[in-house]
C-alpha cells in the first residue's frame, strides 16, 4: 500500500494523566522538571567530553554520542506531552504520530546498539588492555557509531511502516501520552497487525542478541577484574564499568517490563507512571550515574562549570 492508504483516520487522541486539570498541570510540571534535568545533564556531558583533552578516548567518545541520543530520545515524547497538558488538548495528527513513532523507535533502537558498542569497548579495555589502542582505533569508533545509527534507522523505518500499513477501526484514542506501537496495534482492524508482529519478532531478536553480547562482555569483564591482585586496580576497573552496567540495566529492565507487561484496555495512572521508567527515567538518570561514579568526568564537569562562570563574570 502507498502512504495515502495507510489509515482512514486523520489523527488520534492521546490520553492525559488525569481528567482533573490541576492534576494534569502537576504531571506536566513534573515532566518539565525531568526534561530540563535531562537536557542540562546530557548537554554538560557533551560539552565536557568535547572540550576536555583528558577525555579524548573511545569511552568518552561513545558517552558523548549516548548523551546526544538521550536528548533526542526524551525530546521525541515529553515536549509534546507537556504542550498538550498546558494547552488542554489531546489531539495529534496522523503525520505527527507517524513521525513521533519513527523517531521514538529509531532513538530507542540506536540507544540499545550504543550500549552494546560501549560494553564491547569496556570489554576490550579491561580484558585486552595491551591491544586496546589497536582494536579501538579511530576507524573502529566511527564504524561503531555508523552501525548504531544504521540499526536505529532500519528498526524505525521497519516498525513504523508495518504499524501504519494497517487500517484502524473504532475509536482513535491512544491510551498513552505518546504514539506507542502496542497501543496503536490495539486499534487495528481484525488481524491486520500480523505483519507488524513479524517485524516485532525480528527487532526483538536483534535486541536479544544485543543483550547476549552485553552479558558476554560483562561476564568476561567481571571474571578479569576479580583476578586483578591489587584492590586499587579492581576499584579502578569497577569504577569505569559499573556506571555503564547501571545504565544498561536501567534501560533494558524498564523497556522489557513495559513491553512484556499486560496492557489493559483502560490504563490507570499507575500504567502511565510505569511508562516513565523507560521513556523519561533513563535519559534523566544517565548523566548522574556516569558523573557520580567517574572521577575523570566529575573533574571535567567541574572544570567546565568554572570556565563558564569565569566567562560570565568577565
TrEMBL record:
Residues spanning the membrane: 28-49, 61-80, 92-113, 134-158, 197-216, 237-260, 272-292
Gene3D superfamilies in alphabetical order: Rhodopsin 7-helix transmembrane proteins (1.20.1070.10)
Taxonomic superkingdom: Eukaryota
The keyword Cell membrane is annotated on this UniProt entry: yes
Stored InterPro entries: GPCR_Rhodpsn, GPCR_Rhodpsn_7TM, Olfact_rcpt, Olfactory_GPCR
Primary residence: membrane
GO CC annotation, single: plasma membrane
Localization, UniProt: Cell membrane
Pfam families: 7tm_4
G-protein coupled receptors family 1 profile domain boundaries: 41-290
Topology in the lipid bilayer: Multi-pass membrane protein
Keyword vocabulary terms for this entry: Cell membrane, G-protein coupled receptor, Membrane, Olfaction, Receptor, Sensory transduction, Transducer, Transmembrane, Transmembrane helix
Molecular functions (GO terms): G protein-coupled receptor activity; odorant binding; olfactory receptor activity
Family: Belongs to the G-protein coupled receptor 1 family.
PANTHER family per the UniProt record, alphabetical: OLFACTORY RECEPTOR (PTHR26452)
Function: Odorant receptor.
UniProt-recorded name of the protein: Olfactory receptor
